[in-house]
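Tutorial handout. Part one gives the primary structure; part two gives the three-dimensional structure as tokens.
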Amino acid sequence: MDKFHTLTELLDNAGCQYKIFDLGRRVCEIDINQFKAVEDNRQPYPWPLQQHAHLSISFWQQGNAPWIWFLRLPLDERGLLKQAAVGDFIKYVIEAMGATLNSAPTEEEQEKLAANPYTFKPNDDKMAIFHAQLRQQLSLPASQYYEHAQHYLTGALGWDKWQSIGLQGLADVCARMKQENNTTLLRKSLSNLPMTPLYALLGCLEHCELPETLGERIAEILEQECQKAEPDLFLISALIRALSGSDNQLLNRQLKKLLSEPALCHPEILVAIAGRCWNGLTDIENASQFLLRLAETEDQSLFNQLFADLVMLPVLRGIMLQILHSEANPALVTAIAKLQQHARGQA
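Part two.
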């Protein structure tokens, strides 16, 4: 049996076509050459979450339906893939499917492959948008729920008739927003949707690249909510997450406004920013203000957890370390000192 060191070697050898997505933070495709560089430890994983790469690998041979692996692979402290874990998973695959990847595993082999320590099950929201994006990219038809969701978003069914709308249908509309009239449908529906379908729709949009008009509409709704006497902090959290795929200038502007209001910086909102809107923290002012608001929550364990997660992102590492070593607000100085003390205690 050939010795394969990487998953892409195995897939290339079997003559498979494949697509790789990150499912840890925002559901988005990873360029195959970039992933090969990650596999060879030539660069860190671009979007780590809790020191793991959360991936989906969809692969198929000509004329066959895709197989999908959902993998949670450990990273070292530099964000590089741990090679032993990849080697382990490859062993599981070859035992179940053979190196050619064209024999359908028996039920027992499938169970064995599914039960290995590296597979995970994404939550329903991510699963829905992942399947919607994958089907759209492979030019496969949308799910059976697509047209009904489209029809609902016109308002013709009545906005209160949302109970029959499937999450998968909303995800399909979001994944196909450049088709038909979907961007306009989405933009116009935002002001009319009851809370349950609005949250479901915003949850899909946080994994999509937003056209300018849609991003601006979400930003308007966010600003209106922030100006209320009693703003809904959970809605603000959902709206800022939904803006994560908007134009960087728009995202930066909205983060600046939000972070300038201490009353709005509830831990839920700070977690949303760290999990989805990290691109807005490449602006060092935003990043400093974010860490200050985090320190002001006086939840040291949350501060330690989010800082550790953000400093692992290659695009933020330099910025986070720069703030760590600079003089800052007393609350931030205290939180950073406690973080360093915690790190020394673990060393």
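Part three, for discussion. The first strand starts at residue 17 and ends at 22. The beta strands are 17-22, 28-30, 52-60, 67-74.
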